[in-house]
Amino acid sequence: MSTYTGLYYGVKPVRRRAFTFGQAVLLVFLLGMAAFMLLPLVFVVVNALKPIDELLLYPPRFWVQRPTLANFGDLVLASSALTVPFIRYVFNSVFVTVTVVGLTILVGSMAAYALSNKHRWPGQELFFTLVVSALMFAPEVTSIPRYLIVNRLGWIDHYWALIIPPLASTYAVFLMKQFIDQVPREIIEASIIDGATDWTIFWKIIMPFAQSAWATLGITSFVATWNDAFSPLIFTRTEVMKTLPLMLQTIGGGIARAGAGAAATFLMIFPPIIIFTFLQSRVVESMAYSGIKS
Amino acid sequence: MSSQVEARPIRPRRLRIPLHTQQAIMGYLFISPWIVGFLVFLAYPLVQSFWLSFNNLENLVNFQIKYIGLANYIEAFLIDVRFLPMLYTVVRNSFIDVPLIIVFSLFTAIVVNQKLPGQGIFRSIFFLPVVISSGLVVRELFGQYQAETGGSPIVRGIDVPTVILLVGPEFARTVFDLINRLALVLWRTGVQILLFLAGLQGISSTLYEAARVDGASEWEKFWKITLPMISPIILLVAIYTIVDSFTDIFNPILDYIKNLAFAGQFRMGYAAALGWIYFVVVFLMMGLVFWIGQRHTFYAGER
Question: Fewer beta carbons within 10 Å, N or C terminal of chain A?
Fold first, then answer.
């Protein structure tokens, strides 16, 4: 083989071979990782199939011994005993989550655009510092005063209480700013010279460029809002306003309903997975914009 | 298109606002929706919880509070035997976890960003734990079952050879702890991998092309192009990871605070004080990260 290398150099580049070998190593690494990362999903699926005695077993077992679909029947039974139709919880969850995700992206990106180096307005630096410091405060700590404010606004048991407070997300602003800062300044300047307003620049340049950023933000915000059982717990009173996670916590709470709870957890993880698969392609597609020269 | 070009003034006569002022006004307009939310739902609650930390809740029904000065803070440092050790453990753990998560997720993101078969599937799989584990599942997986005999369900899931139990319970516990920690760290990297991927997508391919023409190796490309170009994202990921680990449901401090405030005792004043001490500690850590970050971060837009 080695005697021919000189000859092969001309015909096919060495790069190609090195790439394939590296690829194989990486693939093995990825497969191992993937197996490990799949464990929680497997656990959720397996749990949903466990009969009640296996669910309550101590010490717990990972795999199921006698798989059954009884848990789903339990879930249907448990939800038919509710005073409000099941679909109402689904609607509440979907409506709140979609609104929150959309508005978080919009409000956060606009604020990030204003805070990014494209603008110079008095107080900008100070404000950014403020954003970053607010980032560190665990939401639990402010939950009492926040409740009092929502109460005073008269939003208790309204959609407002579930939608508006999470919009002021410091994480959203920080994330978007880190990405918007990467937009080449020349493009912005060129558009200003061409007479573009900030509004046009924001929609025509910033948002397409930061596509992977807001797709990422959309995914994380969806997951957080969809799974959040805490804010509906403190901000809603009547059954008609409750969202899925809170309702599922209630029906899956007792030991007798552990099976229904496991089945519910299984069903709950699907919407975020679908959203993720949908939005993550945007993270890839933004490749098209990376051709912009800086 | 008009064929004739007429000579006319560049700007029609109207009220002229200097560009600076225009930009400032637009800046304020863009940020105002967020500012309103920030002031009402973050800044004001923060101030109020600060005030609450110097008070004691006397009556829950009408939220009557009584000023007690520094008593809550004195209790936290001198009387409460659980708080400080807990705080120490949390800080120590994050010093280990955060760099691990950053390095691991950057590496994975770069690997997944290669043109490999099934790359989309890998991306999805790596993100799955985030989708699932933000809820009750993680609690069940690790639960209270840890250590002792068989370890948590996760340890049993990957079927750790029972041989290690024969070596001695001490050794077995260490191994189980290690697996648990590793799982927790790896499962928390989904968002970070996604952030890095998004960052990698933003790097102009012309840079790599130029480097290839100049004969740079993959290794050189990583250090000279990839790393500087995604340094703002590294800072972002570092901050995100710290915030995430300090506000995570596994964090014993938050559990402790929440229980103090809501579970029966309603010691909201003391809970607020602990919250603020915690805040200052996290603030110092973030300050450290920012201080390091500012010196090594490269912003392409600022050139």
Answer: N
